[in-house]
Backbone:
C-alpha cells in the first residue's frame, strides 16, 4: 500500500506541476498577446500618421501637376501667339518689299523720263547709297 500511495502522490504532484506549467504558459501567452495588441495599436497609429502625410503629399503633387498643366497651356497659348506674330511680320515684310519694289520702279521710270538725269541706270541702281541719294532731281 505504501507503493500505491506513493504512486498516487506522484501522480498528484505531476498533475499539479502540469497544471502550474499550463497556468504559467497561459499567463505568459496572455501577456504576450497584450504586448502584441499594444504593438499593433502603435503600428496602426504610425500608419495613420503616415497616411495623413501621404494625403498631404498627394494633394501637393496634384496641385503641382495642375500648376504645370496651367503653365503648359499658357506656354502653348504664347507659342501660338508667337507663331501668329511671326506670320504677321512675314506678311508685313512681304508687303513692305512689294512697296519698295513699286517705289523703285516708279523712280526708275521717272529717271528714264527726266531729260535732266544724266544716266538713269546710275540714278537708281537699287543699292543703299542710291536709295539715300535723291533721285528725279536735276543735276547741276
Residues:
Amino acid at each position: 500500500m505504501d507503493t500505491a500511495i506513493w504512486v498516487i502522490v506522484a501522480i498528484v504532484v505531476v498533475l499539479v506541476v502540469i497544471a502550474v506549467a499550463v497556468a504559467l504558459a497561459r499567463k505568459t501567452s496572455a501577456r504576450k498577446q497584450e504586448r502584441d495588441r499594444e504593438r499593433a495599436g502603435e503600428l496602426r497609429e504610425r500608419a495613420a500618421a503616415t497616411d495623413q502625410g501621404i494625403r498631404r503629399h498627394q494633394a501637393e503633387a496634384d496641385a503641382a501637376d495642375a500648376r504645370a498643366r496651367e503653365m503648359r497651356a499658357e506656354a502653348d497659348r504664347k507659342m501660338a501667339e508667337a507663331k501668329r506674330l511671326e506670320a504677321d511680320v512675314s506678311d508685313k515684310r512681304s508687303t513692305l518689299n512689294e512697296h519698295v519694289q513699286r517705289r523703285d520702279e516708279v523712280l526708275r521710270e521717272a529717271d528714264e523720263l527726266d531729260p535732266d538725269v544724266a544716266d538713269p541706270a546710275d540714278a537708281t541702281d537699287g543699292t543703299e547709297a542710291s536709295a539715300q541719294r535723291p533721285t528725279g532731281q536735276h543735276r547741276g
